[in-house]
Every structure is written in C-alpha cells, then in structure tokens.
Predict the 3D structure of the following.
Amino acid sequence: MTKDHVTVWENCLQVIRDNISFQAYKTWFGPIKSVRLHDNVLTIQVPTQFFYEWIEEHYIHLLRKTIKKELGKDGKLEYSIVMSNKDKFAVNLPTTNRTATKNQSSNMPMDLNKEKSKAFPNPFIIPGLKKIKVNSQLNENYSFENFVEGDCNRLARSAGYAVSQNPGKTSFNPLFLYGVTGL
C-alpha cells in the first residue's frame, strides 16, 4: 500500500494539533506544506531557516513520534527550506539528532518565616542614620480629619490616607495627584 505525502502529513498534523496549544500549532505548523514521500522519507517545506531551527529545537520529539507512528520505525523527516532571493530555490536538510532544549531549573531561596516575608522593609529608613527634623512646610490646618470627602475625590483621599499611614509600603508609591486646580 502506497501512502500519499499529503495524507501522511495531515495525519501527523492531527497528532501534533492534539499535543500543543492552538496558537503554537497555528504559528509553527500552519505554514508548513508537505512536498513528497519517497523511500519512507517525508519531505516538508518550511518558510525559513529560522522555522527549521525552531521546529528542530522545540518539537523534534513530537515530530519523531508522529513520523514513526505514520511511516513505521524506518520513517524519516526531511525539511525543504525556501530561500527568498530573486531566484527562489530550496535547500533540503535531514532531521538532526538533537534533543529538545529544556529550561534550566533554578533554586530560589525560600523564606521559612512567612510573617517577615509578607512585610516589605521601608526603603526610606536607613539604619544608622540620625532622625532629622525636616521642616515640611505643610499647612497643619489641612488634615484628613477636616478633609471634605465627596464622590469626585474619594479615590484621591483614600490613596493619600493609605500612603500617610504606611509610607513606602503601598502600591501607590510614589503617589501622584493631578488636578486642574494645581493640586
């Protein structure tokens, strides 16, 4: 029984589609076309050298398994890369025996004291420095106790109050307020 290269590649694509995300399938396997099947060697056409290298690096194990499933243990895969110049030509490259790359594992330090890990140190406190009284030139008549809160300024008041209670420890760091009145 002779197999058609299009049918073999479609069967391979079905297995690949079931094993990777839709976006990865669409990006990396959508542009690939089958060219021929000769002596148990399936030739597929990829658009660029980069495609060839990416597929060889990331999907080689999956491709090998699908080719063996479709063509048997002697089945092989060959790439045809279309070079884009004035005169289009193709370069045929056989599958390499590289293994897929894996991300290196890294050991992250683990803080066993969970109470301390939740609290962030204040970046404005430097150990060993004397506390200096700074004249802030703020009007002491303006405080949160006598601030008139309304719908239009509720968010600004809440953010300002949170920053005043926990300086350097809020998500509003630094806090910028903008208003047409020069606030």
Summary: Residues 119-183 form one domain. The beta strands are 33-38, 41-46, 76-83, 89-94. The chain is about 35% helix and 15% strand. The chain has a mean pLDDT of 79.
